[in-house]
Amino acid sequence: MTETTTAVKPLQFYGTSSPNVWKVQLLLKELNVPFVYHHLDIRNGDQYSAEFIKVNPNGKLPAIIDPNIEGEPVRVFESGNILLYLADKYKRFIPQDIKGRTEVLNWIFWQMANLGPSMGNLYHFLVYAPEKVPYGINRYFNEVRRLLHVLDKHLDGKNYIYNEQYTIADMAIYPWTKIISFLPDVNPVEEFPNVSRFNKTIGELPSVTEFNQELVQFQSRNPYKPPTDDERKWMFNRDGRSLSPNNSQ
């Protein structure tokens, strides 16, 4: 793929307030490329609109449309894929040698397949589940704890995930590790000292500091409220038929 030779057009960036979306926001802040942000209300089914399903047929966030490509604009969905696409396109925040690139991708895929899903499921059972399910809570709590110890061991003596440089691996992992304070009966500083130091290192980067300030402002304007029964249907109780705009389930 090659970029168009006309004036640069803004990316179309679709998101909501979640760690997976924050990853892409961190990278876009560093790249300083123009984009238009579309905030989708996942409690009211924006992610299943006919318009957005054309962007991501899976109905999940984030996603982007890049119009600066010859021919048809390129759609990119899945947060890890967006990070990789943008890092490759601009040749920044990813090593250009095969060894370094592979190590960065090791940790991005680790986050995508392990830390993110496990933390998301634990948060669901702790916060969203209509009744407490001890098996679900214990299953995902233990797995999250195990994964954080894996990461803590890797970060021993390191400030960044790879080779003391800020890469898309850090951007993929930090949005999840920054929220580990929700874990019940865990003191992150004591149990995961290297992860806690990593959070401090990344959080003090100028672009990340700015992002966190903006996030606090957004959250103060939009405080958490438990979802209503109708909102829960959009968030959790969809089956494959729900991707059709004609389905009124």
Automatic annotation (TrEMBL):
GST C-terminal domain sequence ranges: 97-224
Ranges where the record places region Disordered: 220-249
SUPFAM superfamilies: GST C-terminal domain-like (SSF47616), Thioredoxin-like (SSF52833)
Biased composition (Basic and acidic residues): 227-241
Residue ranges occupied by any GST N-terminal domain in the UniProt entry: 8-94
Superkingdom of source: Eukaryota
Family as reported in the entry's similarity comment: Belongs to the GST superfamily.
PANTHER family on file: GLUTATHIONE S-TRANSFERASE GSTA, GLUTATHIONE S-TRANSFERASE-RELATED
Protein name, as recorded: Glutathione S-transferase
Organism: Cavenderia fasciculata
Lineage: Eukaryota, Amoebozoa, Evosea, Eumycetozoa, Dictyostelia
